[in-house]
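Could you help me review a protein record that somebody else here produced? What it holds is a sequence and that sequence's fold in token form. I need someone to confirm that the token line plausibly describes how this chain folds. Take the sequence as given and treat only the tokens as open to question. This is what I was given:
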Amino acid sequence: CGFVNKPGTCYINKSPSFMSEYELECSDMLSDDAKAHSLNTQDDLCKLQSYAGYDKLSSILAKYGKSFPMRYLTSTIPAYVWRAASYGEPYKISSLIINAANPLVTYADTNTVRKAFEKLDLIICIDSVMSASAVYSDYILPVALAFERPAFQAFGGVSDFCYGGPSIIKPLYERKSDYEIFRELGLALGQPSELWPCETLDEEIERVVAKCGFDYDAFIELGYAGGLSEDNIYDYCTQTGKIELASSILKDLGETPVAQNIAYNFVSTFQNEHYDSPQNSILTMITGARTQPYWASCYFSIERFRKMHPRPMIEMSQSTADKLGLKEGDACVIKAAKDKFLLDDSCGKLVLDIVQYLHISNIIDDVVSCEYGWWYPEKINAPVTKKEIFYDFYNPHFKKVHRSNVNLLSRCDLHEVGSFCLQKDESDCDQLFGTWIYNGIPVTVEKYNEEG
């Protein structure tokens, strides 16, 4: 093929010549019984994203002497975790460790995530700041910051290249690297010490690159390792041994082997059937827009960054803004379009509206784009009113902290799990990705009276 493994074309990665992520996982030690209890195996939605799917793909790779990390195809869909925590289906999940994540802000359907959090018996958060999710935690373990731990990047264990460098200072106070935290937890739970031979992350990095002939000092001096793999770059690791435009694995699993063009307009298809709002008032919302200097839901507590970009923006066209009587900079309340299947306002703490600020752009008419990741750390300990306490006794700050969190309007109800749709059918999933619904969400937008 003239477009593979040539300068300027697609490059087929080789296996790592250092210790691979698959070796570090020790995934082959996981019992068949544990695999059978994976939440992804409880229905036929996850035919590939499952241990069965992984076994099928890894058996093909084994023919070429290759492997890839088990986590790539076995990570549980978050919606299944929330269902198990909230409803005990198919079994009860009672504890959660959060590491380098802020699910209450960055995961779809914040209302559903919150309900699951409140049903859990134990939440442990490993973080460097008091995040919105950490507020719900029973224990917060302070993690070493970027300059306090060595850096190491191996591209998910599927490339013969890694790079890294030393820490700049030792961790201050009681902070530890996440490696040390999980090592101590594993040993405390009875895992054999042979699985954790290195006490520190520096030693573990040295163990990983030793296969390339490096000790730790030599590695951090050079800054990278790899390039010694003897893989054949023309092993395409498919069932046919060729580049497949149609996936034979998906075909074997009974799925469509070629990506299909799905043209649908969620709003126009469902507004008459499902929604009480007037037809011309419903807009299509897309989410996921990110703005520097923030990264996902990080750095909102840094005052200098907040001055650079102080308010979350909702983008819409000039024509749409004119129709709604809005102008640049207006505070806008974005609401989930009134769904006939939703419970009424007596359904408790369900929050189905957010506030962001208008920015006119060249986005297409009747579509709005809302910024992702917004929350207000300064509101965690802000004074609250009696009304707020009455509305939400156990966490009266919730609505203030999440006032601009667009995931209050997104959905993760793969099967009637979330806050929105109470029906079981494929429309509960994003038709393009088969997972939670971040885009194509029907909303209404109107000017917000910030004094009211």
